[in-house]
Each structure stands twice: as structure tokens, then as C-alpha cells.
Amino acid sequence: MTRLTFVRGDITEAPVDAVVNAANSSLLGGGGVDGAIHRKGGTEILAACRDLRASRYGRGLPTGQAVATTAGRLPARWVIHTVGPVWQPDEDRSGLLASCYRESLRVADELGAATIAFPAISTGVYGWPIDDGARIAVQTVRATPTSVTEVRFTLFSEVAYEAFVTYE
Q1: Which residues belong to the active site?
Q2: What pLDDT is recorded for position 94?
Q3: Could you give the number of structural domains in the chain?
Q4: Contacts of 34 by beta carbon, 8 Å cutoff, 6+ apart
């Protein structure tokens, strides 16, 4: 059975097998969690992402999908990159957000990762309301069959942490 834990902290310091990067489709770094992972993980992550772009993701990683690279200088072994949807008030994109969590767990299983840390995908610059994002994240992880033994939601802000522990 998968244990869910909730931590307020910096995902780049998470002592887990894999950290999930809320990436943009280019895979080449950006702001928020994406920028922090690339900065702290170093050039190895960017080089691996460039290789992915040069091979099977020439047009970028599609929203809701996930792919793994090295974690470079992070404490984790792998970074699982996933592209969350931009929130649209007039369009239900919750299936794409749920897919980010399911696909990340699928990739973690393929890697043999026992522990994984998730950020609050799409709730930053992509504008997803934090309460709804937390609900979708926790419900999706609980409903997804996986060999991962611990899913650690690592939330940077107190607001995000409080939203997620509501679903504990």
C-alpha cells in the first residue's frame, strides 16, 4: 500500500528516489518548480532534456504526459518531468491534471522508484486553484495502482500545504 505524506519544503531537497518536475512542454527549464530543479540539479538535467527534444519529443512533451531524466546534483536519482494544464475557467481540464499524477507514477514504476515527491502541479503560474488542484492530486494518487511505497507531496508555500493536508 502506498503511504501519502505531506511536507512543507523545497522539493529540490527531497530525500526520495524521484522528484516530479512541473515542467513546461519545452523541457528546457522555466520558472517556479521547473526553474528550481534545473538550477539545483545542474547541467546534466538540461543535457538530458535536450536529448529528449532531439529524439522523441521534438515538439515538446505533451500536456498530461511524463518522462524521466537523471536528477543531476539533486539528492534524488531521477527527475520525472510532467506538463500540467493551464487552468481554464470555461473548460474542464481536470483529466489532464490527473493524468500528470498517473503518468508520473507509471514512469516511477518503470524506473523501480520506491519513493516519489510531487509538487502542486499547475497551481502556480498555470493558475489552477490550489484547493481543486490538491483534491485532484490526492484523489488521483490514491486511486492509481502503483508499486511506489511513499508519495510525498512537497509543498513550497503554507497555503499549498494547508490545501493538501485537507485531503490527508
Answers
A1: 34
A2: 98
A3: 1
A4: 21, 22, 23, 24
